[in-house]
User: Fold this.
Amino acid sequence: MSEARVKLYTTRACSYCVAAKRLLQQDDIAFQEIDLTTQHELRAQLSREHHWRTVPMIFIDDEFVGGFQELARRRSEGGLKDLQPSSQG
Assistant:
């Protein structure tokens, strides 16, 4: 099994994190979840590096894409199709 191309940085009490995971699961897209609930230093570092304060923080192929709304927009524009199992070689 190859490494997931999508990484989600989340916290436990985040409805947008739940929504992002659900969206990916509906499309059968594998993802790695990193829980930032108690990792305050890592969250602060990611916020500084990517100028993004909220979770989820979503990366595709190590490129920061934003949060749930940006992920949903990408999906509606067809930008997640290459992440689905049927399109992978």
